Amino acid sequence: MIKNYFKIAWRNLLRNRLYTILNIAGLSVGLACALVVFWFIRFQTTHDHFHKNIDRIYQVTTEFHFDGTTYSRGVPAPMWKAMRTEMPSFTTSMCIAGWGQFFSVLGNDGKVIKKFKEEGPSMAYVQPEYFSIFDLKWQVSNAKKALSRPNTIVLSRKIADKYFGKENPIGRRVRLNNQLDLEVTGIVDEPAEASDMPYTSFVSFETLVANPKYSYGGSGLDHWGGVSFGTQCFTLLPEGYNIKTAEKQLVALSKKYHGNDYKSYDHYLVPFKEMHHSERYRGSMPMKWIYIMSAIGIFLIITACFNFINMATAQALRRSKEVGVRKAVGGTRHQVFIQFMLETALITLFAMATGFTIAYVLLPHISDWLGQPGSWPAQVNFTDTMLWVFLAGLFFIVVLLAGSYPGTILAGFRPVLALKGNVTTRHIGGISLRRGLIVFQFVLIQLLVICTIVVNNQVDYMLSSSVGYETRGLASIRIPAPDKVNQTTFRQRSMEIPGVADASFFIFSPTTNSNNSTNVNYDNRPKDELLQINTKNADNHYIQTFGLTLLAGENIPESDTIRGYLVNEKVLEKLGIKRPQDAIGKMLSIWDVKAPIYGVLKNWNNTSLKNGVDHVAIFTYRDFHYTCGIKLTSNNVRKTMKSVEQLWSQYFPDYMYEQSFLTEEIATSYELENTMLKLIRTFSVIAIFIGCLGLYGLVKFMASQKTKEIGVRKVLGANLSGILGIFGKEIGLLIGVAFLIAAPLGWYVMQAWLQDYENRIPIGPGILFISVLVTLLVAGVTAAYESVKAALTDPVKSLRTE
């Protein structure tokens, strides 16, 4: 019996090749998208879950109560000491992340023999306890032995091989950021792909203590008033420990160590496994994007199933006599239903195999295209139980969703009507069902088009809008040794290069995601202000190099240390000062250094246009000036920067040169939005493709049902445009109904999405109507062939065969 079912199903699929191909094409594309979405979500939601104690790992965070409430992953640098003192039962470790590290491999004579640049957060200063919290297998040595001394570094196996080849790296030396010479004391495994701790080199925390003049070291390690995003503290709670008890201990700790300022700071323990999705703490993949991707994947599967229903019910009329014969010779309703469900299962099986192949082959290319090479393919693990559960569940859901209704319709045919050929659209749900399914597909298409346009326009707006000064023609280069002689002479000689208009030394550019904030005291008041201020260490050429606007006062004087401050308008707003002139000469204390306010600057965006304007103070502290900004006037930027590189090499021949442009640095702030925009664009095109298949099926069905009507109209004198109008009105009505649903829904969804951006675009009626135009264009192209074909059919033939 089962063999007979399969034989008949196979013959039916071969006999109706176009029907089979269209269904397999629609389902396979939908299933391929569902798999890509599954791997995307699986990759994003399993970040750091390989740590065996992930449920007990917590990150200490900071909540500021100054001008409103703000949040940071960072903590004051001495937090780890306080926690070990006040909460000794916890395993606690401080981790200070470093971005874009330069490494030079040194020979036995101390000379540089190789140079490398590691992108992203590839290095961290850690304590031995870090490896008691996070799981990273040691290949050579151990944490306590390798990281207990200053000026030591542990490398991952891949980085060790990259730097030293087949030579034994233990005991060899590398130079970090052109400043610190470090001894290699251990080798660990590579971090997992799905990890928010992607470090491949670990420098002992004691290195910072032993090198107070280094940019991350010094007195800041004991300062409770400053918080940097990269200064993070992790703790492993004892088994069975009550988290509420731990939070109470943190409150007491804050009161004790923050002193009179404790009301301005709250510290919380946040489960580390939640940080990857936390918008509050700048997680790399907020849950809203996970939900959006999940919804898109589900909608694509549903619309592919609706295509199947559309075409299957259209085929039902042609198969009515077949069903009648089966029932006349004793076939039951149940057997007919099983027969059709088996056909659906075969089509779904072929589509799933095709879709899986498409997704598997394209996945590495998708990862590269999205700028995440090597990430998603790691999730294609055939031993992953969740993958097989997902595939099995998807198979049964698609078979039931796509096959149950058409199967029920076919099984319900009365044999007498079927054999006489009297089964009509009324018996299979009529065109109204297909109209509803097509409307759903049009709604999805228009929603995706609206989302694509809004996200695209928002990204374009952020990239093209001014952050408060001109960012084009501004380049930055790293300076290995921020001493006075090198800075002065290097600047003088760089100004002699044709195409260089100005130069300045600093630690952070005006707009950057790398920021430090600290508390501030104004005008000798007894208490610090309820204000966190972003600090910009820079020389007195900073504002002219970057084109910042001075509203009142004058520039800070040339100096090696803090002699005065420049603040922006936002600071004055918080202090209640209405006129910029009134702040000039007032005393300001930052880092416990009291000095006058020299000038007030016009506001600019300190991070990106996603956020609002921050409080900023600029002052000179030459020991931290590890970056040189170059303002370019020449159109031949490449030639000018080549001359800058040659000059740099004369001063620092043993170090590695690398440059960046401010426009590129700002663009990285919108990397997530660009990634999601690419995905939404792609899924929009796929949704349109699947929708086209469904619309083609509807038009083909309409043409077959209106053959006689079209013939009569042509005999009575109807022309081509009149005949095409029959189809045009039908399709136009469906698109119009879809628009009435999609427009308010799309506006609501995208308006909610835009609320996360301080600077955002409006959603005007033009964006909504573009979605209709796109749908009309796609529908017109899709329906054109079958519509014209039906309109040009000889009416005599149509009337004779009907």
TrEMBL record:
Methyltransferase in keyword set: no
Family matches, as Pfam families: FtsX (PF02687), MacB_PCD (PF12704)
Top-level taxon: Bacteria
InterPro entries given in the database record: ABC3_permease_C (IPR003838), MacB_PCD (IPR025857), Macrolide_Exporter_MacB (IPR050250)
MacB-like periplasmic core domain segment(s): 20-252
Compartments where found: Cell membrane
Membrane protein topology class: Multi-pass membrane protein
Domain ABC3 transporter permease C-terminal per the UniProt entry, residue ranges: 295-403, 682-790
Parts of the chain that traverse the membrane: 21-41, 289-309, 345-366, 386-405, 436-455, 679-699, 733-754, 766-785
Keywords: Cell membrane, Membrane, Transmembrane, Transmembrane helix
An example molecular function term from Gene Ontology annotations: transmembrane transporter activity
GO cellular component terms, A-Z: plasma membrane
Protein name: FtsX-like permease family protein
Species per Swiss-Prot/TrEMBL record: Dyadobacter luticola
